[in-house]
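hi! just following up on the protien thing from before. the input was this:
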Amino acid sequence: MQKIQNVTLGCDPEIFLKNSAGKFIASCDKIGGSKDAPLQIEGLSRGFAVQEDNVAVEFCIPPAGSKAEWNHHVRQALTSISDRFVKPIGLELAFGVSSTNFDATELQSEKAQTFGCDPDFNVYRLEENPRPEAVEVGLRTAGGHIHFGFANPTDDQRFAVVRAADVVLGLPSLFLDGDTKRRLMYGKAGAFRPKPYGVEYRTLSNFWIGSDTLIEWAYEQAMKAVDLVNNADKRLFASDTAIMTELAINKNNKAAAKAVMKKFGIQVPEV
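and the predicted 3d structure came back as:
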């Protein structure tokens, strides 16, 4: 396999809104933008955009080529969305919440009842994941997907990056993300979408957007994933790695996660 070169990182995290009393409020018809027509964020460069996604607010950033640029992009997007879209309607961004139950009064619109868009896939079986359905009537979830861009991507490179991302990002996330409900709907092990520029890794929730430490950790670990692939680490494709990684992420099995992380020398950061 050719080495992965000219790597950039992007993301499209989702975040909920809440009012001053702590009640979660659906974003529907409050922010604007959609999957087909995201809003460019005024005052920021091209590539910063925001949209309503089910009951959450989703944003994207331009591809970043360094940790400093990545952190700046994510922070700039969050600050602009809060100041321009959220505070003016008396709401705030709900950091640290990747799944929650909304009151029925917030779920009356068609947007609030629409789940998912394009399918994603399982890297271990190379098959489409089932379309998500609400396991509880009011349960809604928020992802923190990371987009890997690189020169002349091939499927073999995409698959390897996703397996590596599961090891260096997905497994330690079990110890950093206290939520256990999101993966009942989204974010199974090895979830990805192929992209013309590379691959979208879809296993993570939005837990990492809440602090500079975790934003930078996400970048560093993504680069470690690329290094594992470029170093042709055969352990990524070992059957025991795949079995234990799926068990850990899909079942929140921290013992299995620790076993795989130990094999690869992956540590959980202090936050």
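The longest strand covers residues 14-18.
The two ends are 36 Å apart (CA to CA).
cheers
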